[in-house]
Structure formats: structure tokens, C-alpha cells
Design goal:
With about 70 residues, the chain is mainly α. Helix content is about 85%, strand content about 0%. Helix 1 packs antiparallel against helix 2.
Length: about 70
């Protein structure tokens, strides 16, 4: 199980990196939309919020798998 958990943790790290990249791009798009519309209040899109929550979940799963694999 330890080897499998380690492999799963590496896969989750790949998911984490993809989610981080998506979050950064979505945040930039939201800020650009805010500037374009000259809004005073910055807002986050529902998709950006979903990506942020997924990233947090992926980080917790990665930590759990790391602990299970002993690395």
C-alpha cells in the first residue's frame, strides 16, 4: 500500500499544479473583466471559486497520501 500511496500522491501533485495554473489564469481573467467593466468591487467567478476549493481538497488528499506512504 505504501508504494501505491506514494504514486497516488505524485499524481495528486500533478493535479495540484494544474489547479494552481488554472486558478492563476482565472483570477487574471476576473481582474481583467473587473478593469474592463471599471468595477470598484473585485469579484471572483464561480469557476474560480470551484478551482480554489478543488485545489484545497487536492492538497489535503496529497498530504494524506504522503503520510500513508511514509515519505
Amino acid at each position: 500500500m505504501s508504494v501505491e500511496a506514494g504514486e497516488a500522491a505524485r499524481e495528486m501533485e500533478r493535479v495540484n499544479r494544474a489547479l494552481d495554473a488554472a486558478r492563476i489564469h482565472l483570477a487574471a481573467l476576473d481582474r481583467a473583466a473587473d478593469l474592463h467593466e471599471l468595477r470598484e468591487k473585485q469579484t471572483n467567478s464561480p469557476l474560480l471559486t470551484l478551482i480554489e476549493h478543488a485545489g484545497n481538497s487536492a492538497a489535503r488528499v496529497t498530504q494524506f497520501l504522503r503520510e500513508q506512504s511514509g515519505t
